[in-house]
Amino acid sequence: MSLVVATAIALGVTTLTSAPANAFTPPNIPSLSTATSELNALTVDVERNSGTYDRNLFPHWITISGTCNTRETVLKRDGSSVVTGSDCYPTSGRWTSPYDGATWTLASDIDIDHMVPLAEAWRSGAYAWTTSRRQAFANDLTNAQLWAVTDNVNQAKGDADPALWKPPLTSFWCTYAKAWIDVKYEWSLTVNSAEKSALSSMLGRC
């Protein structure tokens, strides 16, 4: 048994080398044909205003229902056997991260990732939005924008687009590209040329 595997077992996390069949995914991930059409419809442009980005311009996490905010809503949606306290924060459950295939039993090990990062959205057109539209984007539960993933994997992604970062599981690249494209399409955001090329290549794995 390798040191990596032994350490993972000791920490209560299992890892996979292929796409996890038991990972929950957000709603409305498009088909390959739809994603291809959407990619072709996106405006190709350079990114702008990166120096003026401020995360506070995208209010999150907002209250969704009762005491549950957006983060807690996604944790309940994308976990299994999730039990929450009166404040809606999970006290137990099981989450499988589709980005890397790791399964976790502590909500604190899970980040809620914005498929299209807030800073990336800003550079791709959200700089011109109203605050209310940016809030809607940051808390979008309708599209495949919010994902429950391993925290350090999300941190490695940062605000990078697919030309600069891809999920560790190559078997997930197809789904990742379809979701990324659809979010950009639904929110009328632009792509740069390197990003579009990377997305097209990732769709080739579908």
TrEMBL record:
Q: Which UniProt keywords apply?
A: Endonuclease, Hydrolase, Nuclease, Signal
Q: Name one GO molecular function term.
A: endonuclease activity
Question: Is Nucleotide-binding one of the keywords UniProt gives this record?
Answer: no
- In Swiss-Prot or TrEMBL terms, this protein is called HNH endonuclease
- By its UniProt entry, which InterPro entries does this protein fall under? GmrSD_C
The GmrSD restriction endonucleases C-terminal domain covers which part of the protein?
Answer: 94-200
Which positions carry the signal peptide feature in this UniProt record? 1-23
